UniProtKB/TrEMBL annotation:
SUPFAM superfamilies: ABC transporter transmembrane region, P-loop containing nucleoside triphosphate hydrolases. This is Uncharacterized protein. Gene3D superfamilies: ABC transporter type 1, transmembrane domain, P-loop containing nucleotide triphosphate hydrolases. Residues 483-720 form the ABC transporter domain. InterPro entries: AAA+_ATPase (IPR003593), ABC1_TM_dom (IPR011527), ABC1_TM_sf (IPR036640), ABC_transporter-like_ATP-bd (IPR003439), ABC_transporter-like_CS (IPR017871), P-loop_NTPase (IPR027417), Type_1_exporter (IPR039421). It is a multi-pass membrane protein. The chain crosses the membrane at residues 45-64, 164-187, 207-233, 389-409. GO terms for cellular component: endomembrane system; membrane. One of its GO terms (molecular function) is ATP binding. It is found in: Endomembrane system. PROSITE patterns: ABC_TM1F, ABC_TRANSPORTER_1, ABC_TRANSPORTER_2. Keywords: ATP-binding, Membrane, Nucleotide-binding, Peptide transport, Protein transport, Translocase, Transmembrane, Transmembrane helix, Transport. The lineage of its organism: Eukaryota, Metazoa, Chordata, Craniata, Vertebrata.
Amino acid sequence: MMESTKIFAAAICLDLAVCSALHYVAKFGLPPSLSPSGWQSLAQIWMLAGLRWALVRLFCVVLTKPGSKAVLHRCVTAICLLGPVYESGLLVLFEKHPEHWSGSLSSPGKTLIAATATAIASLFWEVNFPDSRGDACGMSNGTERKQRARALFMRVIRYSIPDALFLCGAFVFLAFAVICEMFIPFYTGKVIDILGSHYQPTSFVTAIFYMGLFSMGSSVGAGLRGGLFMCSLSRLNKRVRVMLFQALVKQEIGFFEVTKTGDLTSRLSTDTTLMSQSVAMNVNILLRSLINMVGVLVLMVSLSWKLTLVTFIEFPLIAISQKIYNNRYEKLSKEVQDSIAQANDTAGECVAGIRTVRSFNTERSEARRYDDRIMVTHDLKTRRDTVRAVYLLFSRLVTLAIQFLMLYYGRQLIKRGEMSTGNLVSFILYQENMGSNVMSVVYICGNMLNSVGAAAKVFEYLDREPQVSTQEELQPETLRGHVQFQDLTFSYPTRPDRPALKGFSLEMKPGHMTALVGASGGGKSTCVSLLERFYQPQEGEILLDGQPLHRYQHKYLHSMVAMVGQEPVLFSGSIRDNIAYGLTDCPPGEGAGSCPQGKRPRLHQQTGARVCFGTDVGERGSQLSGGQKQRIAIARALIRQPQVLILDEVTSSLDTESEHMIQQALASCPSQTLLVIAHRLKTVEKADQIVVIDQGQVLEQGTHQELMDKKGNYYKLRERLFSENNSSGSADHSKPPSQ
Ligand SMILES: Nc1ncnc2c1ncn2[C@@H]1O[C@H](COP(=O)(O)OP(=O)(O)OP(=O)(O)O)[C@@H](O)[C@H]1O
């Protein structure tokens, strides 16, 4: 950077010396043959600029290393071009001839001002549009990114194929509306001309008629185009959302542990919408602006090519300011969105835990926490609005300056008889149109990349293959329910370095009840999760009737292996809906308790549910007690008549009577393999085998009596549990172990 600055300063000095020499030679009239006027001196100015450029460029090339900063060379070129472009503009637009053959900017003072202005402009350019072609690595990254963006965009287009009819119709109406729109300013100018000169009623009526016709055409076309585009947008959006949702629910449980819920919901809502917009909305606006730009340009040039040249000054300024504004505004908007999400999280957390908040008297601190979050959002919004205000001010000033320049120059053209007043009015209307089209194109180009970025995020999840596969097809006619855990080692995806199970082996026979006991965090629930295929063990495997668990068909496995978890989850709807959840052979009119297949137990009795089946359970079962929820969850599992039933601490919220009923229900299915995790002594005692687990390993295994006789871990654990149960007033009235 320092080296480039030094070389640039040296190049400016050299250029200054050359320009000064030329200036003084020209000023003192030497040689006189080189003092023509008009176009000839303009040609000389361009030639001299070319020579200046070659000399200064050579100087820079010699001093810099190969492949060094391209900005230096661009800067030098801009300085050398400034003079000739300025002189050409004066001659073409105002017919003002150059003062002399070296150009009016060649005096030392003006050369220095021109160099400083160019340096500032270049710096501004480089800061806002960093050079990606400078180094090989940047180039390959940039090209790769563009190729990826193109591939993604093409994929979004492929997803839009089912809406091709809507899109084609929309494009036809778009072109129609734009063409009609373009003629309105033309006829406006015509009307003004008719009114301002010799008024002829026929011409006036004809012009007004055409104006009205084109206005109507443009409105009808725009309406139909908008409708068709919106229709294709919402169809695509719906399709992608459903596909994404299907892909997400297929993922393994570990995926949901490492991915934040907010991430998933924003992909489903914001990103899918952005992705759909990339085709329907953006292509719509882009095409409309491009067609409009080309048409308007042709009409502007036909009205006055000189005035068109003047308006060209505005477009780079608009494009650059719009691009800078877009970047800043989008960055701040994203921050605003994030801060709103955080504030919502804070409010949601507080509402969800309102009982805890109330009992700890933290209402005020929670309100303060929310206030802090809202303040962050407020500050960000203020910054975003300031950026918008500055941008609007700048763009209005630029537009105003250009319009002033255009009116000044337009007046000169009218005076010279090169243009009519009506033409000038039409031209100004076209120019405004052109400005807004340039803004739209720049905006859409930026937005397209955003949409493609959103599409990339959506495709990432759409293409993701679940790590726990659900593609296998094994579904034998009968299943005995013989389960073997063989030397399992497993760590959770969020804690890969801390195994939850280490070399874990266990056998569960059909018709037998196995009870897992042990200290909290020992790995009991992990065994259940693996048996439910929520995760894939890293080592070892689980066999069901001698076949690896992963070979069974997904639906078959979950109809044969059912689980009731520690915290049963219910979905909003009636109790009947929740019990029949996922069942297709249960007619909606009949209660779950009267489902076909006589073998099915009478659930309302078994589960002790004293509420009607049609009762609404509320969101996540919030209108039921813990015990009622558990009974419904048990009924939901039992109605499937699973061959392997897992109860993970389910009886913890039940009263003795309900627990007794459930024990009876379980006893009515003698061939079932039952796996129970329980702290209640009565449940454990009845088990055919009790397995004591600690730190992911089996410590002891046997019947209650065998383990009691052994006086090992189970004996100690039971003693502790008994005293805990007693002190907490538990419903368990077992006797203490005999010493
Ligand atoms: N989803 C998870 N991600 C990461 N680690 C987990 C996860 N679930 C459990 N663990 C860890 O795995 C170990 C075994 O947990 P597990 O839930 O199997 O114990 P548990 O014996 O069922 O305990 P409890 O009786 O308290 O329910 C613990 O160290 C726990 O912190």
